[in-house]
Write a structure and sequence with these properties.
Helix content is about 35%, strand content about 10%. Helix 2 packs across helix 4. The two termini are about 35 Å apart.
Length: about 220
């Protein structure tokens, strides 16, 4: 925080999460009275994660003559409501993007009887013996798989959105440097993770959309 406060005194471009931006606003270390542009990246994701109130608080505290830009993969009613409230004469720019997987990733699916997924996962990991593997689940409750794997002799850690940032950073550092061989995660780890040398990505739960499948693998 001290380092951020120091750098904010001379910054002309600030990138932040809604919570941290509001924290600095409350402290008076981030002043938005001369703001020229505000960009909401992954706007639909932020709304689905419950940041609407924070976003509205931030937008309300910015000058009316600012430019407001929203990047969003989808345009649900909540996003359209934001555009009506906080944008003047907005221009909609749409691009057609094909979600494609990479050719050199081999993709395999396995039929597993009901109630035997844990056993199947155990067998696959023992047979393939990956150095680094990511296992994706749809809910934070399913990250309990990490505890199951630990009991069966694997070095596994869980990662989900309700963990403190310091905890998430510690888990990611352990995975990145090979101290943890298996990372069990929700889609919080599907984007923006920079780890090389991952042997296997296992979708323990099939994701809600094809877009997330592509991001995961």
């Amino acid at each position: 925080m001290d380092r951020q406060i120091l750098r904010l005194k001379t910054a002309n471009l600030v990138v932040g999460t809604p919570g941290r931006v509001m924290d600095h606003m409350r402290r008076g270390t981030l002043k938005l009275d001369r703001l020229k542009m505000i960009v909401l990246d992954e706007a639909d994701e932020m709304l689905s994660m419950g940041f609407r109130e924070a976003i509205e608080t931030i937008l309300t505290d910015t000058p009316e003559d600012r430019q407001t830009v929203l990047f969003s993969a989808t345009m649900p009613p909540a996003i359209l409501a934001l555009t009506r409230t906080y944008q003047k004469d907005p221009v909609l720019v749409q691009i057609q993007m094909r979600q494609e997987t990479v050719e050199n990733i081999e993709q395999v699916y396995i039929d597993v009887p009901m109630g035997r997924k844990m056993d199947a996962l155990n067998l696959i990991l023992r047979y393939e013996n990956p150095q680094l593997a990511m296992i994706f689940c749809n809910t934070k409750r399913m990250v309990e798989i990490a505890a199951y794997l630990d009991r069966h002799g694997f070095m596994a850690e869980g990662l989900h959105g309700d963990m403190k940032q310091s905890q998430r950073t510690k888990v990611m550092e352990g995975f990145k440097h090979g101290r943890t061989g298996i990372l069990v995660a929700t889609d919080v780890a599907a984007r923006g993770i920079d780890v090389t040398g991952i042997d296997y990505v296992i979708n323990y739960d099939i994701p809600q959309s094809s877009e997330y499948y592509v991001h995961r693998i």
